[in-house]
Design brief:
There is one protein chain. This protein is α+β, with helices and mostly antiparallel strands. The chain is about 35% helix and about 15% strand. The chain contains 9 helices and 9 strands. The chain has helices spanning about 5-15, 70-75, 75-85, 105-115, 170-175, 205-220, 225-240, 250-260, 265-280, and strands spanning about 20-25, 30, 85-90, 95-100, 120, 125-130, 140, 145-150, 155. The chain has a 5-stranded antiparallel β-sheet with strand order 5-6-4-8-7. Strand 7 and strand 8 form a beta hairpin. Helix 6 (about 205-220) runs antiparallel to helix 7 (about 225-240).
Length: about 280
Amino acid sequence: MTQPTPIRRDSLDLAVAGVPVLPLRAGKLPFGNCPTCAGNACGGRPNMKVAGPCQCLRPCHGWAAATTDPAVLQSPAWAEAWRQAHAVAYHPGGARLTVVDLDDADAVTWARESLPATRTVPTTRGEHWIYRGAMQSANAVRPSVDIKSLMSYARWLGPGTGTMTDLPDVVRALAVKEPSTARPAPLAVTAPAPTGSGECRHRMPAYLERGIAMAEQRITEARSAVHTTVYRTFLAVLSAHGRCGCLSDAHVERLFTAAQAKGESPRHCTDAWTNARIALGM
C-alpha cells in the first residue's frame, strides 16, 4: 500500500482535529477551477471569495473547498491535486480561528508590543499569531499585517508554540473601517459643534456634562486601537447630544484635546468628527 506523502498526512491529521484543509499549488495559490466547473457552470463564484452551490468534490473554489471529510480528502477526485500540491492550506474561520499574518520584522515587533500573547508560528518572513475565535478577514490592516479568518485561507506551517488565547477586541478593531469620504485638511484644532432644533433629551445640564466626561475618559483610557476608539466615541457623543444644539464648541474642544493627548493629530480629529456626523446624517 502506498504511504501518504507528508503533505497528505498533515492534511488528514488536521481534518481529524476539525480543521478544514485544501491543497496549495506552487506560489501558495489554490488549484483553479476543475473542468466540471469551467466557465462557472456550477454556479460558484469565479473569484473564489464566496462559496456557491457547487457540489463538486475537487479543490476548485479556494477557501470554500476546504474540508474535514477524510473521504473527500482521499477521494480519486482530489488525488491529482494532492500529487501536485506544494503545501497544505487551512480555512481558519472554518475552525473558529483567526490568524494575524505578520509579514516582516517590524510587524512582529508591533504585535509583541500591542497584542495579547497567543500561539505563534514562524513564517518565511515573519510570524502567524493564532487566536481562538473567528472574525471577518481583512488585508493590510497595518503595514505588513493581514487578518485571515472567515472566507480566507492560510498556509499550514506547523502547530507553533505557546498557548492559544481568545480573540481579543484589539484584533477585531483592526478590521473596522471608518466611512470613506472626501477629507478636508483643516488647520484648526476644533471642529464646529452641530446645531439643531431637535427635542432636547438632557433635561438638565449635568446629563450633557456627564456624557462629555465619560467620552473623555473612554479616549484617555484607551490602551490600543486609539484611532478606532476616537471615532466610535465621537459617534456616540453625536448620537446622544448632537441633534438638539446643546453641544458647544467648548465640548468639542475637550474631546479633541483628549484625543490629541493620546497621539491623534488635529487633522484626524476633524476627519473622525466629520465622518461621524456623515454617518449619522448630520
